[in-house]
Amino acid sequence: MGSPGPQPPRPRRPPAARPLLLLLLAAAALLPTGDGQNLFTENVTVVEGDVATINCRVKNSDDSVIQLLNPNRQTIYFKDFRPLKDSRFQLVNFSNSELRVSLTNVSISDEGRYFCQLYTDPPQEIFMTITVLVPPRNLVIDIQKDTAVEGEEIELNCTAMASRPATTIKWYKGSTELTDGKSEVEQWSDMYTVTSQISLTVRREDDGVPVVCEVDHPAVKDLQTKRYLDVMYKPQIRVSQILPTSGPTREGDLLDLLCQVEGKPEPTDTTWFRVDDEMPPHVIVSGSNLHISSLNKSDNGTYRCEASNEVGKAFVDYMLYVYDPLTTLPPPTTTTIMPSTTTATDTTATTEPAVHGFTQLPNSAEELDYGDLSDSRAGEESPITAVDHAVIGGVVAVVVFAMLCLLIILGRYFARHKGTYFTHEAKGADDAADADTAIINAEGGQNNSEEKKEYFI
């Protein structure tokens, strides 16, 4: 720090007073900063390379001399004079109540206790501490593999070198903080080197995602470094039905399928073929497209789109089922004869299909793990009926109803018209005045009167 400059003359004291003065100075040095004294100062924390300001203040000034000393007790300033030959110390303000000094380009060697002295009777002395913070010299991420394959576990290391105090390292994948990092601290002299390690199992979604190493240190803000993940994965396939745009596939329709493939590296081999059978001759395959100009029942089957790259192979199946074409039946005429009227009913039957889709089956159990499936559905349609059974059933119901009505009418008619009939039991009784006379005058006379009587119980 330099040699001490010339000291001002001190008042002469008897030799017996010197031990007492030394004792007073030692006691003053042990007092806490600004505690019950006339002299005050503050501790300073500064980042290496910045400026530290040392301030010695007097509460009740009596024109006493203020002096500033370094940790080696060399005089930096005496009043407004600088005996120490270090140009980094500059006077900011001097008065009877304050001595303020700045220290530029602070380094680790400047750290320690600085003393403020006030020449009173008895003299006063307090100290303040300069603490120097050192940010990490370098921040580096090392990755185990520059390029990883989906499903692999990779290891990343982040090192923050030569900091003071020891730094804290945080990990992020994208915007998500990772909390399973493990740190080790090494100390070299007054400096600390921290290394943090983390393991990741990568997936295709991680390709191009940044992994960030961030430093948490009082000497620096927003200090971070990052590495972008490079992940290779096998093809991912999706089959889309371009034509027909809706409804089931029927005889005579156009079928156009598109096989969309994505992978890293880019798949170099994409093919269409028919599973367990030969490809029909009228099927046209152009790159990733499969085209059938006119469907027929012989085209039924499973068609597979397959692709591969350096990582592996994948496929998706499309199940084709061709339905009958749409047909319109001729309008049948049904005549029903009623008891009193004749009604003719015309019914036209038109068959309508059910909604149709397509099905793509999983390639394998491995496909289920990595989601290389394109979901679709196979439509089902009820069989087309050539004869409209509903019309026939209606006609039969009308005929049965008419016959029942006719039987009811005939029954009521005969019930009302029972008819008139005659017997020979009352011959000769037409002119009788009453019933008893009629019985007596009836054919057979009195002899049969007892037999002709009727008794009602």
Low-confidence stretches: 1-36, 334-387
- Bin the strand percentage: 35-45%
Q: Give, in spatial order, the strands making up the sheet with the most strands.
A: 2-9-8-4-5
Instruction: Output mean pLDDT.
Output: 79
What characterizes the major β-sheet? 5 strands, mixed
Secondary structure tally, helices: 5
Give the overall silhouette.
elongated
Termini separation comes to: 156 Å
Structural class: mainly beta
Number of separate strands: 27
Helix content: 10-25%
Overall radius of gyration: 57 Å
List its traits.
5 helices, 13% helix, 5-stranded mixed beta sheet, 27 strands, 457 residues, disordered N terminus, elongated, single chain, mainly beta
If you had to describe this structure to a student in words, what would you say it looks like?
It is a single chain. The protein has 457 residues and is mainly β. The protein is built from 5 helices and 27 strands. The strands form 7 sheets. Strands 2-9-8-4-5 form a 5-stranded mixed β-sheet, covered by helices on one side. The longest helix is centred in the last third of the chain and has 28 residues. It is elongated.
